[in-house]
Amino acid sequence: MSYKGKFRVWRGDSEGGELKDYEVEVNEGEVVLDVIHRLQATQTPDMAVRWNCKAGKCGSCSAEINGMPKLMCMCRMNTFAEDEVVTVTPMRTFPVIRDLVTDVSFNYQKAREVPAFKPPADLKPGEYRMQQVDVERSQEFRKCIECFLCQDTCHVIRDHEENKESFSGPRFLMRVAELDMHPLDAADRQHAAQEQHGLGFCNITKCCTEVCPEHIKITDNALIPMKERVVDRKYDPLVWLGNKIRRR
Ligand code: SF4
Ligand code: F3S
Ligand code: FES
């Protein structure tokens, strides 16, 4: 079964652009990315779209579909009525390069600002020991495919370009929280979370969690516990020091 689907796609570049209407064939079992590819192959050979795996694992095909941040390759066409207009626009939080492709280098910059795991100076490689429960705690965060949909949706930077400098966004606050939970990490992540990565900007709206294609509980399992630890320490700095010593 196939039908003519109605698509409205943003076309343009960093100078500006507009939504353009297209009619494209849609076949049973297809996802939005299939139809975008068919549009590119049959009507708009110059249309820019970033993708790689078509399996929800590379995090490249992030866009906004009817205003919702989603992976185009994981958004099934049978979730729309046949006569519904499907609007596809680039992620709004990042500068457009062309059509559906955005410049996500903001995220790479923020990634570089999180120092790597720092083991205690008196432990040599091979001497690291940690409990299985501590290993498992970080596994959830390691599922991240770096699609940056959480970064795109967070209102702190989505609507406020001026906050980008002082706010790293949910993906990288989650990374800081993961390192802070690591029993062998000796860096002071709590101070950095608050002072350098802007943890205080997050008012736990949970929009990041809602759009995560890996269903990582970013807010409940990373950001809120991190906020709690920062508050504990603010009222009693010895708590932080004591926790670090006890963990080892
Ligand atoms: Fe994407 Fe989820 Fe990773 Fe954010 S945390 S970049 S939404 S996979
Ligand atoms: Fe933004 Fe997520 Fe916090 S959407 S405000 S980082 S809970
Ligand atoms: Fe890889 Fe969509 S193409 S996640």
Automatic annotation (TrEMBL):
Organism ancestry: Bacteria, Bacillati, Actinomycetota, Actinomycetes, Propionibacteriales
Pfam family for this entry, one: Fer4_8
GO biological process, one term: tricarboxylic acid cycle
Keywords: 2Fe-2S, 4Fe-4S, Iron, Iron-sulfur, Metal-binding, Oxidoreductase
GO function terms (MF aspect): 2 iron, 2 sulfur cluster binding; 4 iron, 4 sulfur cluster binding; electron transfer activity; metal ion binding; oxidoreductase activity
UniProt organism field: Kribbella speibonae
Cofactor(s) needed: [4Fe-4S] cluster; [2Fe-2S] cluster; [3Fe-4S] cluster
Family: Belongs to the succinate dehydrogenase/fumarate reductase iron-sulfur protein family.
Protein name: Succinate dehydrogenase/fumarate reductase iron-sulfur subunit
Known pathway: Carbohydrate metabolism; tricarboxylic acid cycle
Gene Ontology cellular-component annotations: plasma membrane
Residue intervals of the 2Fe-2S ferredoxin-type domain: 5-92
